[in-house]
Write a structure and sequence with these properties.
Shape: globular
InterPro entries: AlkZ-like
CATH topology of one domain: Arc Repressor Mutant, subunit A
Radius of gyration: 22 Å
Structural class: alpha+beta
Helix content: 40-55%
Pfam family, one: AlkZ-like
Mean pLDDT: 94
CATH architecture of one domain: Orthogonal Bundle
Distance between the termini: 58 Å
CATH class of one domain: Mainly Alpha
Protein name: Winged helix DNA-binding domain-containing protein
Strand content: 15-25%
Strand order of the largest sheet: 10-11-12-13
Low-confidence stretches: none
Number of strands: 13
Organism: Kitasatospora cheerisanensis KCTC 2395
Length: 393
Amino acid sequence: MPARPTIDDDQRRARLALRHRLAPGARADRAEQVVDDLVAVHATDPATVFLAVSARLASPGTADTERALYRDCSILRRHGMRGTLFAIPAGLAPALYASTTAKAVARERARLLKDFAASGRDAGWTAQVEAAVRAALADSPVELTGSQLGELVPQLRETIVYGAGTSYQTEQSISMRLLRLLGMEGSIVRRRPVGGWTSSQHRWALGPAAPEQPTAAERAYAQRELARRWLARYGPATEDDLVWWTGWGVREVRTALAGCAAVEVELAGGATGFVLPEDLEPVTAPAPWAALLPALDPTAMSGKHRDWYLSPAHRPELLDRSGNLGPTVWWNGRIIGAWAQRPDGEVVFHLLEDPGREARDAITAEAATLRLTLADARVTPRFRTPLERRLTA
């Protein structure tokens, strides 16, 4: 039996630099190019989308991302992998829904109907409120906030008791639960926020009718296509990485990898990775590069196994208690520190190892560029890490 091809950590870092548009010569001209190459950008924290894209543009800034999100709608916010909100290329929406979101929507709708029924609101009542929300958005000449929708559809202002009789009993608004579900389905869509680009209070607009639940064959096809797209940008990667990123079951991931005709390769330490069959040739390493990437950046959060770019010794400083990565400093494909923005707007960083003068100069230049991009905006990550907190103190 012939030996498996080997792809070492240096080659993985070279691929990451080029395919994630982090090396200077690989920077993009438009936001759509960046999001397409990253497949999906975490959008739980609104600032992540703008800063992740800006770090990969030849001319850094937030204006082109605003254009793509709010004028051209070529980038959409959608719930996807692991039930998380992402910014995705508009063309990916059908595959994302069929492969991943539809199952989450079915679970969420079942929970919502159960919780609403417990408070005396049956499925017919829920359907009437949904129809009223869509009608309000259809009749409005402008996009509407949740509060404005509540003025037009008073049922949204009502509350239910969640977890009655338990230690976690709390009140939840109908608006919070129902608008989230409709947003997951895509029948209403998040548009320009109230305030600046760091705001998470979005206005809503009417979207298309919610898609039908996919058949098993449609789901399998969509999973194969999403896996192929991800592997082209993040491979080589392990089966565990794809399980973690997608939130699919192991059997689903194995079926998707087989459908892609993914090829086994040997990674550092003897682990088994996968690449697409046309992706076995080595790539040429780019010139040295530095980057300051935001919290939850998709490159940093790309998989379960991260030792090849994140030293285990650095993890306690850079991750929160749930394993979310905060703002990171990169040098040649490795995370070597963190950055933060202080209340006066200054961008500061701390390195957890000494990378040498060339690296320090390049990182300082990236920090200066980031400060210009931020301008008057102030960014505090939603998921804060020990080092980021200390840097802002």
